Automatic annotation (TrEMBL):
Domain AB hydrolase-1 span(s) in chain numbering: 1-158
Cross-referenced InterPro entries: AB_hydrolase_1 (IPR000073), AB_hydrolase_fold (IPR029058)
Protein name according to UniProt: AB hydrolase-1 domain-containing protein
Superkingdom of origin organism: Bacteria
Organism field: Nostoc cf. commune SO-36
Amino acid sequence: MGGATATDFTLTYPEVVKKLVLSDSAGLAAGSPLSKFMFPPLDYLATQFLSNMKVRDRVSRIGYKNQSLASIDALRCGALHLQMPSWHQALIAFTKSGGYSAFRFTAISKIVQQTLILWGDSDKILGTGDATKFKIAIPHSTVIWIQDCGHLPHLEQPRITAQHILDFRV
């Protein structure tokens, strides 16, 4: 969701964004079909399901191409937000609102900032098709494929990812 947040911020406050980096970004797919089922008690049960560590472990493993990186420490770090007060209520409200529903192509095409699109070549969370769609939609953009990488380039290939970002900022 970080890429969708960055896209939304860039569209809302373009005057404060010099360059944009998107890494395996959400924002092109429509909101969750589960939103119509977000009413008590199903809403709370859904958040309980999503916060279950076995479920989170399975999702975490899908995020990595290199399964050895899906360690218990990575799982715990990825679940830190679950400890925040009112997390369940926030997720319910976000899902009911439609979350980051798909940005329209016309909206994304208004991004004038240079944009670096980093994408794991083996992303099984979002797939790889959206990288090209972002590239087509954002006029001043470049796609760089991170080899041997799933949905989490900053964790799976941190040196390569950081180097591309450093090269981009110059």
